[in-house]
Amino acid sequence: MASTNGSFSPRVAKIRESLLHAKPELCSERAVAVTESYQETEGEPLFIRRAKALGKVLDCLPIYILPEELLVGHPSRVLRGAQVYPEFGVRWLEQELDTVEQRKQDPFVITSETKGRLRAIIPYWKGRTLDEIVAEAFNYLPQIEAGKEAGVFAVEQNEKGGIGTVLLNYPEILTKGINGVKREVADRLERLDLGDPEYFKRATFWRGCLIVCDKVMGLAQRYAELAQKLADSELNPIRKQELETISNICSHVPAAPAGNFHEALQAVWFLHMVACLETNGTGISLGRMDKYLLPFYERDIASGHLSREEALELVQCFLLKLNESVKFHDNESAVINAGLQTFQNITLGGVDSNKICGSALTSVFLDAIRLLRLPQCHATMLVSPWTPKDMLRQAIECIIETPGQPALMGYNAFIQHLLSSGVSWPEVREFAFVGCVTPSTYRMWNRAGAVYFNIAKALELALNDGVDPLSGKQVGCSTGSPTSFGTFDRLIEAFQEQMRIGVRIAVAASNIIERIHAERVTYPFLSLLLPDCVEQGLDVTHGGCRYNFTRVMGVGLANVANSLAAIKKLVYEDRRLDMKDLLEALQHNFEHDFEEIRRLLLEGAPKFGNDNDYVDGLAQKVSQLFFDEVERYTNIRGGKFLPAYQSLLTNLYFGWKTGATPDGRLARAPLADTISPVHGTDVVGLTGVTKSAAKLDHVRSDGTILNMKIFPLLVFGEEQIQAFADFCRTYLVDLGGSQVQFNVVSGEILREAQRRPYDYLDLMVRVTGYSARFVELCKEVQEDIIGRTEHQHW
Amino acid sequence: MVTGLIFNLERYAVHDGPGIRTLVFTKGCPLRCIWCSNPEGQKACPELLLVKERCSGCGRCINVCPRKAIVVLSGLSYTDKDLCIKCGKCVKECPNQARQVVGTYVTVDWLWSEVKKDVPFYWRSGGGITVGGGEPTTQYEFVAQLLGKCRGMGIHTAIETCGYATWDAMQEVLEHTDLVLYDLKVFDPSIHEQLTGKPNNVIHGNLERICQANRWDVIVRIPIIPGYTDSRDNLVNLAKFVATVNREGSVKKIELIPYHRLGVAKYERLGRKYELQEHALLTEDEMDRFAKLVMQYAGVGVYCQSLQ
């Protein structure tokens, strides 16, 4: 494999190589610093404590500059090091510390010193972590534990290791500098009305912001000094010059406004790194970099200080930085979030006034992504009616080569969705994505990874009078025995009731988590970069943003649609199957005498993903019921719960917890991901899948992922590439689809990679909503990917 | 309503005409090219096929067969083709989908309902419908109706033909066709007959008439079968022939289609023998050399279709 691709500079090649070979390692610096700070600040106001804790982390962060680097700043003492965030949870850490090197999914290197330091801080955190307090709170509502246990929903993946899913206003710091923002905050603090009933809350919030400002500038200053020291002893005159430039830049940004392209990228990296260190965030978004970096790029190009090649190298250095961050998940979450993902989204090709899409930088970013072939960033590219042909084509070429990046996003669907969610037009115009597919703005915090809901479980409960067949426990409400339903509509009603109660419990759990979050773990730095929070003096977790959403993500839609189609057709219409026999077959997981019934279910009814109105209509119906149930609720920040289809790998997790389903799926087998068809059932090809997908309501959904796997053969040749670009445009522009992403690999290559992982270190695969290194996924996940319908064509 | 016999329908076809297309495979072909990769498209009737790897030898097919045409020997079922009446009962009974029937009778209306599903993709990409096979002119009435219906709705139409048809049949289909994908294989008439079962004079004559009429866009396609069609003489003669008939410029380009082995397993499933000797796949360089050679004499652009 071409892990030594000659098409980037030796500098980039070298950094890339060391990243590819660096093993993920667990680090303790952050955990120790946070613990010490918490111990020192016992009894101080929350906002101050949090600010001081982050400050201590930044003060204690080991700093170093590698010989090739143009952009500096490392989030941990080793490349691909993962920090630990004890304030979120230590219970699992204690249990898993000894097994973390051997675990199947995402093993980590850990030195005995690190292990010792981490063990030493665990006692302090007992009973003080978010995880434990949430668990304690859940005791008040036993249904939550029961629902989680049975796999009706999952709520705390992110909370165990921090949250994120936020679009930060980096461009504001590029123009004002941290000093500028600091002055504004200080000014607000000074002008704060003593009569304000929330005086204390606001004052401590702003004071926290001020502390954080100083500490971030302090970190940059340390790097400036280090670079100068290295420059002084550097013998190579070229490198000496580079180090002096780095020193200058770091003494300048992010404190002051960025003066050129290089400074802007360095500033963004400092801010982004600190944001990650504060939250352990999944999905801290970089926003529309091809827009806000453009003024710097144009100015430097015009003045002759920068060439496109130099800009490309800098952007590549930046993207390499993004791959240094590694997220450490507990064992269970590691499977759901497989591949050490951090979902650092860059949105390309956004639409501006005069319907201009993207900029000269769009193509620089696409080139950088195409050449690097690394899992980060998480690139998304907007496709609008005005997207130029060349730009889309370049994106397609990037997709084929990386393979899989960027994901393509339908501009129209998201614009309509945001407007109908109450976001005002000026904000909507500036939207960018966070995580995989969540649209956001600088005035929004959307808790995007909040709830995953197993739609297939709701059907299973409806078919079992509310009893979870795998555990035998009453998890849902009693909706009667299906043999007594008599009509298909009655079954739908029972399904709806089960979904209603399931979503309601999940919502309660989510709101408990949010409440405790707001009380225990706030985010001074994130809030500093969100204009509404700064204005109001309110932390992001306290509803500081203007728009506050919480997402509930549906999983298993295709299984439910297929199941309902089979029941409707075979049981109620054709009467080829008795409900009683069906239930018995499900109970026995189609074993022995029930194979026949499974065959009938598999072959005797249409399947979602083939542009068949009968089953697609049921998918629409199920989707609409799911949306109805989710949209009823409000979160503690006063924002709406929004439905979405984005499963990550919860389709595997929920699959393990779900018995046999009437679509012929065996017990504990994976569920269909996002809105993708069930593996192997989409037989009419790409257009059929997208036609089915487009029948769902993409405007009500807060992001709808469609995973498709294609073989390179299909996009080999000029005309084929153009046809493929037209295909994507049809789905995203003409049919109103919201997102599509591709796996461009052959099953053969994947098998080979399983056999010889070291020869395939740079093989990247999209796993439900993101790219990851294939060889870093565990066997089950690998099998899942191979199993996805391969649209072979000859 | 006229019905037609098809053996496949493929959406998102991007190798058979411009844009995104729906490809209809008609069943029945006058030629028997020894390299044919769609042997199930040759006979003009439904056929039974057996996927051996799937057959468990359970023998359930034996019990349902009204003609007692099936036996199971050492774990594999066999069908006596002379006794079999293609009733399809064994196909329904087979628990492993090892037994399949290839070939379905469909109406123009049904096909239209399938074709129209991808209209947004045709419009965006300049695609449409391509009828291939098999040989579409063997069912000229049906194909003409189908293409007429599509073109009436503003959809671009194409056929993929071996050229072996009466001019009347050809004309009837061409009446509703925008683009003709026309296969040429071997220039020498006797070798052509030897390899395909039919001489090529009709084929060459039809191409000449199509080119003379200058009403259709034509893409000539030449399969590159190592040891059969890839000799310098053959390619040069075919190229020269194209240059001679293409006085009006109807032939827009020539596509060279590399030999592949994807059809080999189908022969076994049909209970037939694959006569062609296995040969290594052609490299990109080899294809490029053929393309350059043909280009020299044909006077039109020559392109290679993607290699597997």
State mean pLDDT of chain B (0 to 100 scale). 92
* Class of secondary structure makeup of chain B: alpha/beta
Give the low-pLDDT segments of chain A.
1-6, 766-771, 789-794
Strand order of the largest sheet of chain B: 7-1-2-8-9-10-11-12-13
Element string of chain B (H = helix, E = strand):
EEEHEEHEEHHEHEHEHHEHEHHE
Q: Spans of chain B with pLDDT under 50 lasting ≥5 residues?
A: none
The counted number of beta strands of chain B is 13
N-to-C terminal Cα separation of chain A, in Å? 26 Å
Largest sheet of chain B: 9 strands, mixed
* Spatial strand order of the main sheet of chain A: 6-9-10-19-18
Number of helices of chain B: 11
- Looking at the structure, what is the overall shape of chain B? globular
Cα radius of gyration of chain A in angstroms: 26 Å
**Which percent bin holds the helix content of chain B?**
25-40%
* Quaternary form: heterodimer
Number of helices of chain A: 32
